[in-house]
Amino acid sequence: MDEAQYLQRRKEDRASRRFRKGMYILPSLFTTANMYLGFYAMQQITQGSLAEYWFFDHAAIAIGFAVLFDGLDGRIARMTNTTSEFGRELDSLADVITFGVAPAFLAWMWGFRSISPYISYPDMVVKLPHLGAIAGFAFLVAGASRLARFNITTNPQPSNPGRPGRKYFVGMPIPAGAGVIAAVVHFTGGDPPEWWGTAVIWLVVIVIASYLICFKECSGGCSGYFGASGIHRLQRTRRLRKLHEFEY
């Protein structure tokens, strides 16, 4: 190989490396867009009120688009083979902001700040916002805990030995939980509830979503029925039932 060919090969290698480094930036751009939408949602939430309720709807729409970007960044990283620890940690931090802090703030501001004081239970006007704040914080903690657990777990979604090709239910992903809150707000057009009964129902919805997010895979009693030992127990129970039917 002469000197001209060697220099040409070096030039092509440098161009290839620059292109490779550029490909690593592409998934991070989608993650950054996800983070910005979470920031934009919180900005809209702070401007929302009973008179200007459309800001809540804008925040819900932003969270909905963030769910789309969150699905694209990981898919693009796998397609381009540019997955990295940095991208993984950045994605988790973005998820905490966009699908943890923003929907929790939206759920509290939209659902508990506009309750009419002219009700039969005046104490509800004071107690419900406090309970809503606790529920919103529980939603945030549940989402952050799930992300941290998935980051340190080698196999966060183990396969079900009793049903090949199927996996255990390991809880609702945090983008789905945020999507539930955003979908309800968007369905109402951002108009906050004024009746205290609606706020109570909203409180229950937040608590259920928080529980489903932090729900761990079927373990203990649940795995006893759906795990390998549970399958043997179920088969033994069926054999005993058949034997009992035969005796009669």
Strand content: under 5%
Count of β-strands: 0
Contiguous helical run count:
8
Rounded to the nearest angstrom, the distance between the terminal CA atoms is 90 Å
Using the CA coordinates, give the radius of gyration: 25 Å
Mean pLDDT: 77
Query: What kind of sheet is the major sheet?
Result: none
CATH architecture of the largest domain: Up-down Bundle
What is the name of the CATH class of the largest domain? Mainly Alpha
The total tally of domains equals 2
Sum this structure up briefly.
The chain has helices at 3-47, 54-79, 85-112, 123-152, 174-187, 196-214, 221-226, 228-247. The protein is mainly α and 248 residues long.
Structure in words:
With 248 residues, the protein is mostly helical. The protein contains 8 helices and no strands. It has 2 domains: 3-217, Four Helix Bundle (Hemerythrin (Met), subunit A); 218-248, no CATH class. It has helices spanning 3-47, 54-79, 85-112, 123-152, 174-187, 196-214, 221-226, 228-247. α4 (123-152) runs parallel beside α6. The longest helix has 45 residues, at 3-47.
Q: In terms of topology, how is this protein built?
A:
Blueprint: H1 3-47, H2 54-79, H3 85-112, H4 123-152, H5 174-187, H6 196-214, H7 221-226, H8 228-247
Helix pairs in contact: 1-2, 1-3, 2-3, 2-5, 3-4, 3-5, 4-6, 5-6
